[in-house]
Amino acid sequence: MPTVAELAGQALQKEDSTVSPPSKAVIAAQGLDLTFQTNDGPVHALKDVNLGIDKGDFVSFIGPSGCGKTTFLRCIAGLETPTGGEITVNGMTPDEARRARAYGYVFQAAGLYPWRTIGGNIKLPLEIMGFSKAEQADRVKRVLELVDLAGFEKKFPWQLSGGMQQRASIARALAFDADILLMDEPFGALDEIVRDHLNEQLLQLWARTEKTIGFVTHSIPEAVYLSTKIVVMSPRPGRITDVIDSPLPKERPLDIRDTPEFIEIAHRVRDGLRAGHVDD
Amino acid sequence: MKSVLPVLTVVGAILLFWVVSVIPMNMHLTADQAQRDGLVVSPATPAERQAYSGLGLTLKNTGLISRTYVLERPRLPSPHQVGVEMWDTIFAKKITSRRSLVYHGWVTLSATLLGFAIGTTLGILLAVGIVYNKAMDMSVMPWAIASQTIPILALAPMIIVMLGAIGIQGLLPKSIISAYLSFFPVVVGMVKGLRSPDGMQLDLLRTYHASPAQGFWKLRLPASVPYLFASLKIGISASLVGAIVAELPTGARAGFGARMLVGDQYGQPIVTWAALFAAAITAAVLVGLFSAIERLTLRRMGMQAA
Predict the structure, then answer these.
(1) 3-state SS of chain B: helix, strand, coil percent to 5?
(2) CA nearest B61: which of B83, B39, B87?
(3) Which of A2, B124, B135, B289 is the most buried (most CB within 10 A)?
(4) Which of B196, B207, B297 has the highest number of chain A CBs within 10 A, making it the mutation to test binding with A?
(5) B242, exposed or middle or buried, with CB in 10 Å at 0-12, 13-18, 19+?
(6) Using an 8 Å Cβ cutoff, are B83 and B35 in contact?
(7) Taking CA atoms, what residue in B is nearest to A114?
(8) Which residues of A touch B (CB under 8 A)?
């Protein structure tokens, strides 16, 4: 029979073994697991994912298909429910955070409603959240300026290019002023030139709004150019293989991509991606 | 405008086929009539003529061809006979006259429109139920499909007799049969339309913590509008067919169906054909009207390039 003191000691030990996330972390994941049950058996989408994201961070998730980067983003958003571990967003569960409208989410496709004008599309979350008409109009005007689409309020989505549509969808995610912006390969379907331009704009927007951004991407240059923190992931099971804190300054002109620092980080990301592939 | 020529070509081909068909179709009747009028016909007796086909008889009596077009009670009326009858009964008669096709058309049309309204409302409600309620999803659709496999011609008299027994007469029984035919395409189209938003669009609403009601009014319902119009166009013509069928078995005194029946029973095919064409034109106008409303609505909604 263990003594009371021994039991207390065990309890204390147990306490010690779980590292509590840093208190300033906006998003904190501890030993996060997610297994999908499919017809071909269980798929381990996420395994033991530990990560803290601080306020104002720009965090990129990069990795090959099936590494769980989108799944992790969806866990943060409360769109998927983890099967193990813990995750908090603003100190709440992701589902509570979702109900509190803690984040804006940008999908790979702009997904604008074709029957609403650009202004109408941006009003959609505002209508749902019950903003007053005057407030809606105000906010639409403000976020359209933020994404450089002023004057397009009355246009329909089909009248805009793909890049402009995606900017409108970012404006829609910004309209209700959540502190966190989650972006799932938002520029994946756009061509290189448009993409560069949007990356530059996104950095400016991030600097002006001081949001915390989670950004899923396939592209190494995109991840390195944008991020303060790069999370490299690998598949089967989906896990984090490397977390790189970028030494690049906050101010980043496009030609920073030719500097040795940039190339060095890109190398480390590539190495991380390669390491994740050793097992197959 | 580009489609005018092909359409006219097809119409011309159909008319030509019709005009040519009139001759052999009516030749036996024409020969009998000519004989009564004292003309020489070969062969000489009706019994002998029965052994010939319409075409064979025509070849033996080419002189009678022009007479096949002017029979009072032809087997197949010629286009101009139908045209004259339609002109007479649509434009030359007062619309309150019992011989006016406008009068009969209105009787059928009012039942059609009421039935269409009932059917469309029912169809939309059922579709909403099917999309939002699992039990209805599993149970309603098989019945809706089964309902359409029953020949309406068999069902219509029963419905009318039963409704008559409980004191419902006049417009409503016809409208119910109309609704019976028109709710189905609306259910099928609306279920597809309400389910058309993809996972991403539904996820987007979840990120806003939108209520199910907001999801319906802001996403599912507007997304289903193009599907609804496709269904309405099928539904309105099905409604018209339903109203006409409802007039057939019950000896209705007014309506396109009644006109067709009168023509049939009193051996006046011209009357039947005129009513048929009037019904077809009515259906075309109704469908055209809905196409126009569809274009306007979708353009206003920004879902179609102006």
Answers:
(1) 80, 0, 20
(2) B39
(3) B124
(4) B207
(5) buried
(6) no
(7) B303
(8) 77-79, 98-99, 101, 103-105, 107-109, 111, 113-117, 124-125, 127-129, 156-158, 176
Return the SS3 of A181: strand
Distance CA B211, CA A192 (A): 38
Q: Of A84, A83, A61, which Cα lies nearest the Cα of A72? A: A61
Which residue from A215, A219, A243 is spatially nearest to A59, judged by alpha carbons?
A215
pTM: 0.81
| pLDDT tens per residue across span B231-248 | 999 999 999 999 999 888
User: In 3D, which of A14, A50, A52 has the Cα closest to residue A32?
Assistant: A50
* Residue ranges of chain B with per-residue pLDDT less than 50: 306
CB contact under 8 A, B219 and A113: yes
Signed CA dihedral, B241, B247, B253, B257: sign only: positive
Residue A250: its pLDDT value, please? 82
**How does B139-170 read in b/e, with b if 16+ C-beta sit within 10 Å?**
ebbeebeeeeeeebeebbeebbeebeeeeeee
Residue type, B67: R
Chain segment A163-185, per-residue pLDDT in tens: 899 999 999 998 998 889 999 99
Place of tokens 């064979």: B56
Domains of chain B: 4-76 (no CATH), 101-300 (1.10.3720.10)
Kindly list the residues from chain A whose CB atom is less than 8 angstroms away from the CB atom of residue B208: 101, 124-125, 128-129, 176
Evaluate if residue A205 carries a pLDDT over 70. yes
Q: Is the CATH code 3.90.550.10 the one for domain A22-102+180-280? A: no
Best residue in A98, A99, A112, A124 for a mutation probing chain B (most B CBs within 10 Å): A124
- What residue spans define the domains of chain A? 22-102+180-280, 105-177
Locate B289 and state its tokens: 């009207």
DSSP class of residue A86 equals E
Instruction: Say how many CB pairs under 8 Å bridge A and B.
Output: 54
Is A128 in contact with B305 (Cβ distance < 8 A)?
no
Q: How far is CA A74 from CA A266, B173, B255, in A?
A: 26, 55, 61
Number of other residues whose CB lies within 10 A of the CB of residue A131: 17
